[in-house]
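Structure ticket #2291
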Amino acid sequence: MLKALITATLMLSSAISQAGGEFRHVVMFKFKDTATPAQVAAVEKAFGELPSKIDTVVAYEWGTSESVEGMNDGLTHCFFVTFKDKAGLETYIPHPAHAAFKEILIPILDKALVFDYTAKD
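Resolution: structure written out below.
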């Protein structure tokens, strides 16, 4: 797990160097073996809709693992959400849209890694 975190941190280093104090919320998922492609697609879609429903999100991107080192510890999806500041995340977490998203996610989630930080120049 530590190796996966180090790899993710290195991959995000260019974004960090351009940031200037924004607050980052990095979320990585591994889905259960029983999760269907349609269920995973529903999670991808629902997560992608959150920025339009929660106005504290200032940037959003996501992707699936293409690790050539094989150090992703089974985590397949990474979602990268940016807020103006930590208060933006504090609004986002209890938001009803985020709660509805978790209702879709939790039944098929095997494990997750969440890493929050204030970006440094």
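Closing remark: The CA atoms of residues 55 and 92 lie 9 Å apart.
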